Amino acid sequence: xxxxxxxxQVIDRAMVLVGLLSRAxxxxxxxxxxxxxxxxxxxxxxxxxxxxxxxxxxxxxxGEYDLGVRWLEVGNRLRARLNIRQxxxxxxxxLAEATGETVNLIVRRGDEAxxxxxxxxxxxxxxxxxxxxxxxxxxxxxxxxxxxxEDSASGVMGYAERTGLPAYTSNTLTTLERxxxxxxxxxxxxxxxxxxxxxxxxxxxxAPIRDAEGKLVAGLSISAPAxxxxxxxxxxxxxAAAQTGTALGxxxxx
Length: 254
Prior knowledge:
Layout: H1 2-23, H2 30-37, H3 41-53, E1 57-59, E2 65-67, H4 70-81, H5 84-99, E3 102-109, E4 112-119, E5 135-137, H6 142-149, H7 153-163, H8 176-189, E6 192-195, E7 202-210, E8 216-225, H9 233-247
Antiparallel strand pairs: 1-2, 3-4, 3-8, 4-5, 6-7, 7-8
Helix pairs in contact: 1-2, 1-3, 2-3, 5-9, 6-8
């Protein structure tokens, strides 16, 4: 039992050292690490040596310590196992509860936006419900336009040529000029709107979800009757999307 307790104590101390290195703006020397961890220099040196043997810590040319590249492998394996639907669900549930409306998780598949998950709010009146698995052209949905806003000018032109920008309602953006102007605004705001462009009477607001590399991987949207939208939803939606991105490893600039 004594050996087990001793081993747990060593692991605990090792994680304290790893935590200090992960929060530091750069490498740290042994004396400072030991001091901040509340350890004797000899103990810190011994534990750091063990961490170095496993590639979790490395020593710089100046004799300071930093995190090792092994953490990249660990992080990549973890991200590979993350399921965007599972990761997004807590934020979606909170958002649906806060707004009382339907919250959608949407990904891109070629020239279409695909609804891969949804959570219905508590609104007892008419609700907008998008069936999981449903899809729509990118230019008629809020999140779809976010995906288009990440494309190059030639990419957007190619989309317009392939699809012909068909009209679903009188509000649909059917010219490249209008679409380009809308995408420019989305890039600036990192927020998009569907102003009854897919269906009259139904409006959506969408925000991007980015992974650890900053890549746009999905988007969240709130769907509701157009006359029920509230300005306060913007910040709640952005927060939910950011929360999901953080869970995927995305670091938002302060």
